[in-house]
Amino acid sequence: MIDKLLELQERDIRIAQIERELADIPRHKDEISARLGDSRNALAETREKIKSEQAHLKGLDLEIETRREKIKKLLIEQGSLKTNKEYQAMTLQIRSVEQEIARLEDQVLLAWESMEALASETKGRENALRTEEDRVQRDIRALDERAAALQKELERLRTERTALAAAIDTAWLSPYEQIMAKKRDRAVVRVEDGVCGGCHMTLPPYLKHEARKRNEIVLCTFCGRMLYA
Ligand SMILES: [Zn+2]
Predict the structure, then answer these.
(1) 192: which strand partners?
(2) Which residues of the chain have pLDDT under 70?
(3) Most buried in the list 118, 178, 202, 225, measured by CB within 10 Å?
(4) How far is CA 17 from CA 14, 21, 24, 137, in A?
């Protein structure tokens, strides 16, 4: 019976392992997908910068336009001025507005340079995101394949387990299952050098002796697992 129980236990251990791994797969997938977040955020950030730079440029253009209109008006006004002094004063005013325009145009140039840099940064980040998306897709596909293989193995193991369990006397099977449900790792353990293979406590000599006979259920006095030697 012990040998049959050991065979059953081997399946149960593997089944539990597979079930744990399968249960973990959704979390793994989430972790993998989360990797895209950083790349997406980086890209969105650059796109935002471009937008604000565009708004900045629009503002500068408007300011330049306003000043050009102002110069036009001033030039018309200048034409109707009577004295030379007034005329010269107006020339100075116009020149000062022209200087403002020149300063604004310098800013426009800088803004365009920054736009170009941002455009190439966007391109780089788009590429990085695409690469990451490919990688994520590949990793998710690998996980799906892993899950499918595990599912298949699980079905095979469960069929084998049912057949094995059917061949074991209930007098042995029920305690085995009760211990397994409680201990979760193993219900049947080997006595090694007088020590329980489950809890590693030193067993009383009579238990070692009983365990060697293998014809009746011998339980560890410390952890309650079934012993065999
Ligand atoms: Zn024990």
Answers:
(1) 195
(2) none
(3) 225
(4) 5, 6, 11, 26
| 1 CA distance to ligand 1 middle (Å) | 19
CA of 67 to the centre of ligand 1 (A): 93
Model pTM score: 0.73
Q: How far, in Å, are 85, 186, 189 from residue 202 at the CA level? A: 116, 18, 13
pLDDT value, residue 1:
86
Residue corresponding to tokens 């006595």 = 191
The predicted pLDDT at position 215 comes to 83
CATH class of 2-168: mainly alpha
Ligand 1 mean position to 22 CA, how many Å? 30
The domain ranges of the chain are: 2-168, 169-229
Tokens of 165: 């369990």
C-alpha 119 chain-centroid distance? 28
